Amino acid sequence: RLPSGDTLVFGSIAAVSMGTVGIILDWSALWLTRDIGLVLALGGIGIFAFNGTEVLARLFGERIITRFGERVVGTWAMLVGCLIMIAATYSRELIPIVIAFGAFGLCSANFLPLLMGVAARRNPDNAAGVVSDITTVSFVGFLIGPPIVGLIAEYVSISACMYLLAGIWMVTSLFMRQYFRPLTKMP
Questions:
Q1: Can you tell me the distance from the alpha carbon of 168 to that of 179, in angstroms, rounded to the nearest whole number?
Q2: What DSSP character marks residue 36?
Q3: How many CB atoms lie within 10 A of CB 173?
Q4: What is the distance between the alpha carbons of residues 165 and 46, in angstroms, rounded to a whole number?
Q5: All residues at 6 or more sequence positions from 175 whose CB lies less than 8 Å from its CB, including other chains
Q6: Is the entire prediction scored with pTM above 0.90?
Q7: 83-92 long-range CB contacts below 8 Å, 24 or more apart?
Q8: Is 80 exceeded by the pLDDT of residue 186?
Q9: For tag attachment on the chain, is the N or C end more exposed, with fewer CB atoms within 10 Å?
Q10: Residue 175: is its pLDDT beyond 90?
Q11: Alpha helices in the chain (DSSP H)
């Protein structure tokens, strides 16, 4: 069967999102040690900060989304995380960068689950199939994103790729804003 339009659109967004996560996991240690000048033993500190806050945000994701709404978590939190990442990348200082990685993990953790929820709501008769297809497509991004960054970094820099990462997340979160539900007050 051919994938639906939702699968292609949301799968592409998920692939780009997972590609940027792959960038953090594959390139941040090299960026911190080579471009920023951090000692090798601390190269993984950005990954630790990102993954630690990402886990916390996912553990409490349902509560966070219920409290603030899909649109705030999926769009505005993402934009804040991106701006923090841009500022920290510009600063080239360890503490702001580690805080930014943590903030970015916290702010971006629930984007993909929200995207899957939107796809499931739009396809109630085949929700499991659409979510499965989107997940499959998203891992393509996870696999090809880091090598693409390697190619770009070869000609520019990993720092430029970190700016690109934040820009990509900004665009995807703004695009998805139209699909995320606003917070509704409970009666």
A1: 18
A2: S
A3: 26
A4: 15
A5: 13
A6: no
A7: 83/166, 85/162, 85/165, 85/166, 86/163, 86/166, 89/159, 89/162, 89/163, 89/166, 92/35, 92/36, 92/159
A8: no
A9: C
A10: yes
A11: 5-30, 45-59, 61-68, 70-71, 77-91, 94-108, 111-122, 127-155, 158-176
Q: Is the pLDDT of residue 185 over 90?
A: no
**146-175: average pLDDT:** 91
Query: 49: which residues sit within 8 A by CB, 6+ positions away?
Result: 98, 99, 101, 102, 105
185: alpha, beta or left, given left = phi > 0 and alpha = psi -120 to 50?
A: beta
- Assess whether pLDDT exceeds 60 at residue 187: no
CA nearest to 30, candidates 187, 183, 150, 174: 150
Q: Given the structure tokens 């993984």, which residue do they identify?
A: 44
DSSP for residue 42: G
Residue-level pLDDT at 124: 92
For 57-79, give one letter per residue: b (16+ CB within 10 A) or e. bbeeeeebbeeebbbbbbbbbbb
Cα(141)–Cα(17) distance, rounded to whole angstroms? 7
Single-letter residue type at 96: P
Measured over the CA atoms of residue 35, residue 37, residue 42 and residue 48, the dihedral's sign is negative
